[in-house]
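job 3f2a | input accepted
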Amino acid sequence: MEPEFIGGAYFSCTEPVTWDCCASYISFDSQRLARVYQVPDSFFRVLGYVKIPGAPQWIGEWWAEEHRVQVGSIGEAEQLAQGFLVASE
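job 3f2a | predicted structure (89 res):
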């Protein structure tokens, strides 16, 4: 699978294909990415990523996972995703 280019950095999805990405947010400074996934018939996961330089064999910058939370509702998931984005400010 080819990585996506999101907000000036490469993103390689490692989550199960059964998870549905409901929302994706980027911080104003483009240094943080938050994605909300729905796990079928279950809960929501909020994953937070930070932008890092690629390893020597990679070109450009990449998103690296830094934060993962499981919640019961989409509203709570979106609120946590937005909170992750401003955590560095």
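job 3f2a | The longest strand covers residues 61-71.
job 3f2a | closed
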